[in-house]
Automatic annotation (TrEMBL):
PROSITE patterns registered for this protein in UniProt: NERD (PS50965)
Signal peptide feature range: none
InterPro entries: NERD
Organism: Citrus clementina
Protein's name in the database: NERD domain-containing protein
Domain (NERD) ranges: 30-147
Length: 228
């Protein structure tokens, strides 16, 4: 019996190697690793705090909204959706994406990631207001990051500015101020330093106590902390 099981595993590994791409992993594990990798790099680039895998209550539906990352810096809060997609991607007129896997002749449709990230930001802002934190206008923004090197865009001109492609993601450096100004505005210019510090402290406290995704277990948390 054990011989048959071992033979079956060997055949499975061979077939997987022959008919699937090298980077095809378990979807949940692969996406989770990508999210934590993006969060770690954001913290290094922008000297902020990245909160991963939040589950924020949605007052409209009574359910919880999953948010990949919320990055908190001294003058900004950014909701970040990580799309670990590979293959050729086109954007439809309604903003949805169609991703065609390389060499597989099959495609998958994805709802508008930018609209989804915008909705997440709105839900987060409502949640913060319930916790008695009113953010100044323009303080909270949203982005979609593509960290997969096998992501290919058919026509990049159709991509909205909120999308950070893999090539753009790789070009980001902490000393590159022009890249920073493209989506992280930097210092908060809308009030006094005391107000800025107060908001910053309140956000860190609230998000550190917010519920997180059940699927992110302690192993991922340990791996994330070990990056430091």
């Amino acid at each position: 019996m054990w011989v048959q099981i071992l033979c079956g595993l060997v055949i499975y590994k061979i077939c997987k190697k022959l008919f699937y791409d090298d980077d095809v992993l378990d979807v949940e594990t692969s996406d989770s690793n990508a999210i934590f990798s993006v969060a770690a790099r954001l913290e290094k680039l922008y000297k902020g705090k990245a909160y991963v895998g939040l589950r924020i209550p949605d007052p409209d539906t009574g359910s919880r909204q999953n948010i990949d990352i919320v990055l908190i810096t001294k003058g900004e809060a950014v909701v970040i959706s990580v799309k670990n997609l590979s293959g050729f991607v086109t954007v439809n007129a309604d903003g949805s994406w169609v991703c065609e896997a390389v060499g597989r002749h099959r495609s998958a449709a994805h709802p508008d990631p930018v609209a989804d990230a915008k909705k997440q930001a709105s839900i987060l802002e409502s949640y913060l207001e319930q916790r008695e934190v009113a953010l100044p206008e323009g303080y909270l923004s949203y982005k979609v990051i593509i960290p997969n090197p096998k992501f290919r865009v058919i026509n990049a001109s159709y991509f909205p500015p909120e999308v950070i492609s893999y090539d753009q993601w790789m070009l980001m450096k902490s000393e590159n101020k022009s890249m920073l100004s493209g989506w992280i505005k930097g210092a908060f210019r809308g009030g006094k330093k005391e107000m800025q510090e107060s908001i910053h402290q309140q956000l860190n406290f609230i998000l550190s106590t917010a519920p997180i995704w059940d699927r992110f277990d302690s192993t991922f948390a340990i791996n994330f902390s070990m990056l430091w």
